[in-house]
Write a structure and sequence with these properties.
- This protein is of the alpha/beta class and about 210 residues long.
- The chain has one domain: Uracil-DNA glycosylase-like domain (Uracil-DNA Glycosylase, subunit E), CATH 3.40.470.10.
- Strand 6 and strand 7 form a beta hairpin.
- The structure holds uracil (URA).
Length: about 210
């Protein structure tokens, strides 16, 4: 198989339906880019169709790829704790990712997360658009640069714009924040604690804005 085939990508084509279930089923068979070839399964979003808030991450990790559910690994655990602290019930929010297949490279026996590129993100974007169209959340939380740039464009900077209620073509109200996995990568306890508190503060802004909307 040549490199061109390996990196094949075209926009996904979600079905024309009002059913989230039908859309999720269709996404299971997505071959719009090459990532499906090495992932266990599509990890579609999860949560009630009536959710007022949608959280968007980057892509499923190792745990999510195996479980078929978003944010169930270490990043999900810290996200769950922060959500609770911000007064947000995870069962009531819709959680998804910008890219729905796990992109990885082998390192020994481990599968190491590899950042999705612009073509893979663009290929997957119609699925996120479909989720937004069907769930119609009052507020979207974009966690990390991949999610935020998918929503706002490539020049968006999370460090500059985090914690504000913004508007984009994809969603009327969006709060951008860091990705929860960045909290796990902090070099020491003090910065981990500080970044965690900032993350919770951004989620509180989101919770308030979702109530108002
Ligand atoms: N990181 C993400 O961006 N999404 C997940 O579902 C898990 C880890």
């Amino acid at each position: 198989m040549g490199k061109a085939d390996e990196e094949f990508a075209r926009p996904a084509t979600p079905p024309d339906t009002t059913s989230l279930k039908v859309t999720r089923e269709a996404a299971r068979k997505c071959t719009a880019c090459h990532l499906y070839k090495h992932a266990t399964q599509t990890v579609f979003g999860e949560g009630p169709k009536t959710a007022a808030m949608m959280l968007v991450g980057e892509q499923p990790g190792d745990y999510e790829d195996v479980a078929g559910k978003p944010f169930v690994g270490p990043a999900g655990k810290i996200m769950d704790r922060a959500l609770e602290e911000a007064g947000i019930d995870r069962k009531e929010v819709y959680v998804t990712n910008a890219v729905k297949h796990f992109k990885w490279e082998p390192r020994g026996k481990r599968r190491i997360h590899k950042k999705p590129n612009a073509r893979e993100i663009a290929a997957c974007r119609p699925w996120l658009e479909a989720e937004l169209r069907l769930v119609r959340p009052k507020l979207v939380v974009a966690m990390g640069a991949t999610a935020a740039q998918t929503i706002f464009g490539p020049s968006f900077r999370v460090t500059k714009e985090r914690g504000k209620v913004l508007s984009s073509k994809l969603a009327a109200r969006v709060v951008a924040t860091v990705h929860p996995s960045s909290l796990l990568r902090q070099p020491d306890e003090e910065s981990r604690e500080r970044e965690y508190k900032n993350f919770v503060a951004d989620l509180r802004v989101a919770a308030k804005a979702a109530e108002k909307a």
